[in-house]
Amino acid sequence: MTDKKQAQNAPKLKWDDSNMRSSYANVCNVSSTREEVTLLFGTNQTWHTGQKEVAINLSDRIILNPFAAKRLSNLLGKVVEEYENRFGTIGDGSEG
Predict the structure, then answer these.
(1) What's the alpha-carbon Rg for the chain, to the nearest Å?
(2) How far is the C-alpha of 30 from the C-alpha of 61, rounded, in Å?
(3) Cβ contacts of residue 78 below 8 Å, gap of 6+?
(4) What is the pLDDT of residues 63-84, one digit of tens each?
(5) Taking the model in full, what pTM does it have?
(6) Among residues 13, 31, 72, 82, which one has the fewest Cβ atoms lying within 10 Å of its Cβ?
C-alpha cells in the first residue's frame, strides 16, 4: 500500500483538551520495568546552592507502555533537535 493510500485510510484524530490541565516541572525522573515506563515530574524547591538536602515537590506521574515511551522518546528527540537548530545547543543541565 502506498503512503498516500495509507494516509487516506488513517483515522482522523480529534484532540479533546476539555479535561486537560497544565503543570510546570523543572525536574524529571524516569524508571522502568518490563511492562511500563514511569515518568515523575516535579519542581525543585531548593533555592540556595550548597544545601545538604534538596526538596523536590513531585506533582505528576505518567505511566506509559514501552511502545508509547519509544514514540515519546522519538518525538522529544525531534523537538530538541529543532530547538537547538534555532537557538543553539542545550547543555545537559549539570553546569552551574
Answers:
(1) 18
(2) 10
(3) none
(4) 999 999 999 999 999 999 999 9
(5) 0.73
(6) 13
